[in-house]
Amino acid sequence: QSLDGAGGRRSGYIPIGYRGSYTIGREAQADAKFRRVARITVCGKTALAKEVFGETLNESRDPDRPPERYTARYYLKFNFLEQAFDRLSEAGFRMAACSSTGTCAFAPEQGGPADDKIWTSYTEYVFCRD
Description:
Keywords: Cell membrane, Cell projection, Membrane, Phosphoprotein. It is elongated and about 55 Å long. The chain is an alpha+beta fold and 130 residues long. It contains three helices and seven strands, in the order E-H-E-E-H-E-E-H-E-E.
């Protein structure tokens, strides 16, 4: 990370991620049931994460982390992705990449409901500021 000469802001990357789950029934398109996002995780340099998220950054899993050190243990005190995206945009960040995975966590052959499958997913967005 470095300081930008014009605005005095640090350049760098902030990945945010979340785990989710959803159930798809027999009529997949009309029957998907999504659960809310339980926790949004934040990675990156401590100083940069604090600049963007301020008091909404929960540091309890990695307290007293030096400002220029990297961490992957922070999370946000709110659970709305749009709010996180807004804060990043207001701080001059843009989305650089996105990745998502999904796996079937509970299949009917394992004793579950005959028509439903429960899927879990992990999605990560990488934001950058030059």
